[in-house]
Design a protein that fits this description.
Elements: H1 2-22, H2 27-37, H3 40-45, H4 49-62, H5 65-70, H6 72-87, H7 99-115, H8 118-124, H9 126-155, H10 173-192, H11 195-199, H12 202-211, E1 216-220, H13 230-233, E2 240-241, E3 246-247, H14 257-261, E4 267-271, H15 288-299, H16 342-348, H17 354-358, E5 364-366, E6 376-378, H18 391-395, H19 406-409, E7 412-419, H20 425-428, H21 435-439, E8 445-449, E9 459-463, H22 473-477, E10 486-496
Helix pairs in contact: 1-2, 1-15, 6-9, 6-10, 7-8, 7-12, 9-10
Amino acid sequence: MLKKIRTILALVFFIGITLLFLDFTGTAHRWLSWMAKVQFLPAVLALNALVVIALVVLTLVFGRIYCSVICPLGVFQDLIARLGKRAKKNRYTYSQPLTWLRYSVLAVFIVALAAGVGTIVQLLAPYSAFGRIATTIFQPLWKLCNNGLAAIAERIDSYAFYSVDVLLPSFGAVLAIAVLTVLILFPLAWRNGRTYCNTICPVGTVLSFLARFSLFKIRFDEEKCRNCSLCTKNCKASCIDFKNHKVDYSRCVVCGDCISKCNFDALHYSMKPSHAKKTSQASQPNHSADSSRRSFLLASGLIATSALAQEKKKVDGGFAEIKEKAIPTRQTPITPPGSLSAKNFAQHCTGCQLCVSECPNQVLRPSTDLMHLMLPTMSYELGYCRPECNRCSEVCPAGAIKPITPEVKASTQIGHAVWIKKNCLVLTDGVECGNCARHCPTGAIEMVPSDPDNEESPYVPAVNENRCIGCGACENLCPSRPFPAIYVEGHEVHREV
C-alpha cells in the first residue's frame, strides 16, 4: 500500500509540474501553481515560512518523502530507473555513503547562495535543473506536436488547435546545460537509481539531516528476515545493509520498493516500538498501510487540469521577406516588473525558467551572458511586455518576481527607451514613420522636427524618460532592421512613475 500511494502521488506531482512548464496558454497555472510553490528551495528563497515549516515537519514525521513524491527531478530519475529495472532486475547493491562529497557540495552551495553566485545555485538546485529540462527540451517538443495537430486541424476547418512559435535556437547555452544534465542523470539513474540525490543534491543533503530523526521509518524484523538480499537488490538509494539489518535513513527516500519485494514480511514502515522486547506477529499491529496513507494524504490531493485556452494566431501580414530583428546590446539587462531590482532578482531567482515558459508575449528568455547565465532576461524582438499582463509575477515560486497588479505594473519603470539616430528610417530612407509614438502605451514618445528651426523637417521621436516604463512596445514595433532605431535600456533599480 505504501508503494502504491507513493507512486500515484509522485505521478500526480510530476505530471502537474511538467504541465506547468509545457502549457503556453496559462490555463494550467490556475490549477497547478501551488505545486511550484511547495518546492523546497523556491520556498526558502521566497521566505515562505509556512511551506518550509510544513516540509520540515513532513520530513521529521515521515522521512524523505519530499524527494520521492514532490521533487520533479527525483521522480524523473525514478522513471529512468524503472526503465533500467526492466532491462535487469535486482541490480542494486548496498554502498557506503559518500559523506565527504555530499557535505562538500552542500558547503559550496551555501557559500554560492550567500555570495549571490546564482549560476552555481541554479546548476545544483534540483527543481531548477528539472525546469531547464522541461522548458528547453520538453516544451519545444510539446509545441511541435501542437503545431502538427494545428496543421491537421486547419485542413479540416477546425480551430481546436493553433500554431505557436518554437524558440529552441534562442535558448543557447541553457539548452546545452539541460542536455548535459540529462546525459549525466540518465546513466546514473539507469544503473544506480538515486545516486545524484544522495551524493550531489544539496536539498537532499539538507533533508537527510532531518530524516535521521523521522518518526516513521523502514524497520527490520530480524526474527523474520532470511537474509535473502532482495531488499538490498531493489533499493535504488543503495541504503539497505541486509547483512546487518540496517537502513541508512539519511539516504532512504521511503519509496516502498524494499517492502513490496520482501517475501517474509520482515520489513515494515512504522514507528519505533515503545518497549525493547519484541512482540509476536499476532500481537504486533501493522502500521504500514495506515501510516503511509496518512503521510501521503498530507502531502497532496489528486488534481485535474482543464483544457487549453484558445488564442488568436499572430501573423506578420505581408508577403515580402522580413529580416529578423537582432538583439541590441544593453549595458544593463532588463528584469521583469515585480523583481524590484537586478540585485533582488539575482538573489532570489533559481533559474527554473517557469516564467520563461509561461510568458505569453515571448519577452522572457534565459540569458546566455556569463555574468547572468540562466537568469531570465527580457528582450523585445518577438513581442513586448504588455502593461495588462502579470503572468510571470503570478507563477514565480521563489519570490524573485513579486506579485504585481496590472495597475502597479503600468506605472513601474523597468527601463527607458533610447533613440538611435543612425538607424531611424525617417532619416535613412526619407519616409514618414512614427510607429514608436503611436504605440507607446504611456505617451512617453513624441514626434518632433529633426531640425528644431525647421517645422518642415522630418519628424523623429523624442523620449520623455520620466514617463517611459520600458515596456518595449517601441522597440518591438520599430520597422528598422536588423537593429531597431529605438531600444530599451534596463534599470538596476525599478521605480514607479
